[in-house]
Amino acid sequence: MRKLQNLISDFSKKFLLKAAAAASVLFLSTALLTLPSFAASAYDNLAVANVTSEPLNMRTKPSTDGEIVGKCYRGAGGTVLEKKDGWTKVRSGKIEGWMCDKYLLFGTDIEPLAKELGLLSAKITATTLNVREIPSTDSAILKQAAEGDSFPVLSESDGWTKVQLSADTNGYISSKYASIGPVPAAAVDAKEESAALSASGNGTSAAPSYVISATEDEIYLMAACVAMEAGDDSYEDKLAVASCIVNRVKSGKWGKTISDVIYADGQFPGASSGLLDKYLAKGPSKSCIKATKDALLGSNNIGDYLYFKSAKHASTGSYSSYKIVGGNCFYKK
Questions:
Q1: Tell me, what's the pLDDT at 9?
Q2: What is the pLDDT of residue 10?
Q3: C-alpha span between 25 and 317 (Å, rounded)
Q4: Strand partners, 332
Q5: How far apart are alpha carbons 86 and 92 in whole angstroms?
Q6: Between the CA of residue 58 and those of 54, 143, 201, what are the distances in Å?
Q7: Is the distance from CB of 212 to CB of 218 less than 8 angstroms?
Q8: What pLDDT was estimated at residue 231?
Q9: Most buried residue, 38, 140, 224, 259, by CB count within 10 Å?
Q10: How far apart are CA 119 and CA 277, in angstroms?
Q11: Is-contact 71 41, C-beta < 8 A?
């Protein structure tokens, strides 16, 4: 009888244990179903330089004593590799280096400023895709983009994405054939920047007497802006754009520095769409740097004009005076 009681007791214990286990599994499954899901963000593991004047230095170690290996201008950054003592190691383009956290934006903190920083890019996913003048399949085709091509995003609406093709040309692509996400600009190699400035002249002699204040980084930034606005045009065209930037700094209407003028709201759209960052990463040509330095030294081929736009979009009849140099029209209102 005692053996039978023990057998029943053992069976009861095993049954109760199995029942409890089953109940735990059911409870856990139900709990998991009620928990919110957190999808990975496109901004995860990214860091971006939150600066508008001087670029953020990338160093060989997490300290201001570290050698400067790269420079992240406005909107530049990349993948977070490591964090230590208020510094973050980032891979940006071909460069890896440490940057101070207080000048960086991380992860989803980047998202509200992505459009302002020019971080959103549309990457073509179709074999070929028409870029149209207006958001309609009946619109004129400006160009055909190939798979993998990417363009700065200006806006999105009703299945169309407005992208910037050049400093003075925008177009529209079908949103369903593009992958849109944050793509921080690549850092500028510090040695390459220094070499480019020296190779263009005026870089190895005594400090030049510029007509406005200009650091080496601002000269590079200004030359990249000249490259963006004048492209492969002649030296005279580049000097004209550089002269206009100098005129604007002198006027004080858009700020007191080259950086202020270039990043002023609405003045150089490419500076806020990410287009300028591409020219910074690529590096301005010797001709663009020479035109920039010459303008800073006082050369000027447009007089005191403060405004300009593409000659093909200019409304010359509404200007009090104007001068066309290459592909741009410089004017007074």
A1: 52
A2: 54
A3: 79
A4: 321
A5: 19
A6: 13, 37, 26
A7: no
A8: 82
A9: 224
A10: 10
A11: no
Q: How many CA atoms lie within 13 A of 237 on its CB side?
A: 16
Distance between CA atoms of residues 123 and 279, nearest Å: 18
CB neighbour list of residue 80: distance below 8 Å, 6 or more residues apart = 45, 46, 47, 88, 89, 90, 106
Ranges of the chain with pLDDT below 50: 1-8, 11, 15-16, 19, 22-38, 203-204
Check residue 206 and give its pLDDT: 62
Q: What is the pLDDT of residue 201?
A: 64
Residues 102, 94: Cα–Cα separation, whole Å: 23
Task: Report how far apart, in Å, the C-alpha atoms of 72 and of each of 10, 153, 264, 308 are.
Answer: 71, 20, 19, 28
User: For residue 103, what are its two tokens?
Assistant: 């000048």
Structure-token match 């073509």, residue found: 124
123 close to 179: Cβ distance less than 8 angstroms: yes
For 242, the token pair is 């550089």
CA dist 125 to 47, 75, 128, 140, 200, Å? 25, 24, 8, 21, 39
Give the amino acid at 91: R
| Cα-only R_g, the chain | 28
In one-letter notation, the amino acid at residue 88 is T
Query: The tokens of 79 are what?
Result: 């993948």
C-beta separation of 107 from 46 below 8 A: yes
DSSP string, 138-183: TSPEEEEEETT-EEEEEEEETTEEEEEEETTEEEEEEGGGEEEEE-
